[in-house]
Amino acid sequence: MASLRDAAMTSKAWPFEEARALLKRVEKGPAKDHVLFETGYGPSGLPHIGTFGEVLRTTMIRRAFEVISDRPTRLVVFSDDLDGMRKVPDNVPNAEMLRLHLQQPLTTVPDPFGTHESFGHHNNAMLRRFLDTFGFQYEFVSATDFYRSGQFDDTLRLAAERYDAIMAIMLKSLREERQQTYSCFLPIHPETGRVLYVPLKEVNAQDGTITFDDGSGREWTLPVTGGHVKLQWKPDFGARWAALGVDFEMYGKDHSTNTPIYDGICEVLGGRAPNHMVYELFLDEEGGKISKSKGNGLTIDEWLDYAATESLSYFMFQKPKTAKRLHWDVIPKNVDEYHQSLRGYPTQTPEQQLSNAVWHIHGGQPPASDMVVPFAMLLNLASVAGAEDRAALWKYLRRYAPEASPETHPGLDAAAGYAVRYFQNHVKPTRQFRAPTDRERAAMEDLAARLRAHAGEQDPEALQTVVYAVGNEHGFQPLRDWFKALYEVLLGAAEGPRFGGFVALYGVDETVRLIEERLAAAG
Questions:
Q1: Sorted alphabetically, which NCBIfam families does this protein's record hold (predicted)?
Q2: Could you give the C-alpha distances from 83 to 128, 193, 242, 389, 398, in angstroms and in order?
């Protein structure tokens, strides 16, 4: 452990850099019996991959911290489900019914799916199922329970006492028009149950109450405790840190300008601002921000329909402070890079291993990869074989790797199933074959003839040498134009695998027939 800890103290991997900064903070602060990590979730829409990524990345930092410190840690996933539903998400059923419940707390809005006590409970359950799928160790906290159970009461009373100081922080960030009506407290109407955005007539620090007029002009006085009011979301952020004693929380770049607000309110309420990490946002196919309410970008379930959980974790590990497209075409690439990292891990130095994504994905105990062929090649195999199920691919896999079977290589078997599904749903509907140019046709006819006459080793490198030789002799410069032609004419794809490896997997005779059929079809 000492050598691992020594290596971790100098590792440039971002989880260790964040963990070391957190350790410095903890060592300088008051004594605590544990270090608390928190992530927040707004259940106004179905959970998306960004939510998952926040928990995963926080978990990676937590694991890194546990290497460099013996202090106990906790991770709290906090759902702001007392928030009023401000708009109806685009990707849920029964929209008309939901419109009747606008501004009600999410945990009192009926579930449009009809499976849970409320819309908030439904979305919370989805989040927990997603997190449990990945084996996260966390404690789930509902804002509704937190407010109504009294756990938040001391902090809310203090917020009433220090109302002017909180408002001073908030008003600096608001337009003049908004300043006239803003309050950090949002009353929940005793009759309609709606979260009200109304100016307050009085905040009574001694009684711990607020007084306001509702939309009909009726005056109400409510205690700030017991779930009768909630804090606006920015004050809620900082107040939660103070109430729970949070030591670390990350959030997206869209929150970064609010950091001084969150920190300031936390400190006004007697807390110590936690360490933060700001990550870049995920982008959809068009380069726009993914949104829970729009449902653009990939969901966790959609990714897991086409690849194992570890590939998604690998995607999340890479460059968290760089904006990345999150669309279907990133899945195959991340599957293959994950397995490349697994294969390289055993021969790496301890320092290199701590920078390898698989160390962080598997908590320092990465398994061996059983992917004897790349996922991208499985996709191409599914394409040319017209595969309807994984059994169709195993006919080729057994010939290519006689030692492999679904029983001995379960990861490969699962990947074969994913590849068939991905091909059927996302490649087959859009693939386009193009006709070859005269030079490309001549080169492909030459390749077919050489493969037909090939009597040497049937291994990928030997066959790749044949493919290279044909491309060079037919004057393809740069040589990638030759491979691009093979992919577009033979596979109907813009990109593809090492072609020699594909020939070895699909079969020499089968590849010759494929070339002849595609050239004939092109006329």
A1: lysS_arch, PRK00750.1-2
A2: 19, 12, 19, 45, 55
> Which residues, at least 6 apart from 409, have a Cβ–Cβ distance to it below 8 Å?
370, 372
Provide the residue ranges of all domains of the chain, joining segments of one domain with +. 2-171+231-282, 375-427, 438-522
Q: Which CATH architecture has domain 438-522?
A: Orthogonal Bundle (1.10)
Cβ burial of 219 (10 Å; 0-12, 13-18, 19+) is exposed
Separation of alpha carbons 141 and 131, rounded Å: 14
- Which residues are 278's β-sheet partners? 251
DSSP 83-150: SB--S--TTSS-HHHHHTTTTSBTTTSPPTTSSSSSHHHHHHHHHHHHHHHTT---EEEEHHHHHHTS
SS3 510: helix
Cut 0.85: pTM above it:
yes
Structure tokens at 253: 């770049």
Which ranges constitute the DSSP H helices of 141-232? 143-148, 153-161, 163-171, 176-179
Position of tokens 């259940």?
Answer: 43
- Please state, for a pLDDT cut of 70, what percent of the chain lies above it: 97
Best CA proximity match to 418, nearest among 480, 475, 374, 465: 374
> According to the annotation, is 12 in a ligand binding site?
no
Report yes or no: 220 and 186 within 8 Å, Cβ to Cβ. no
- Residue whose token pair is 């807390």: 271
For the residues 5-18, what does the mean pLDDT come to? 96
Average pLDDT, the chain: 93
**Confidence check: pLDDT of 456 > 80:** no
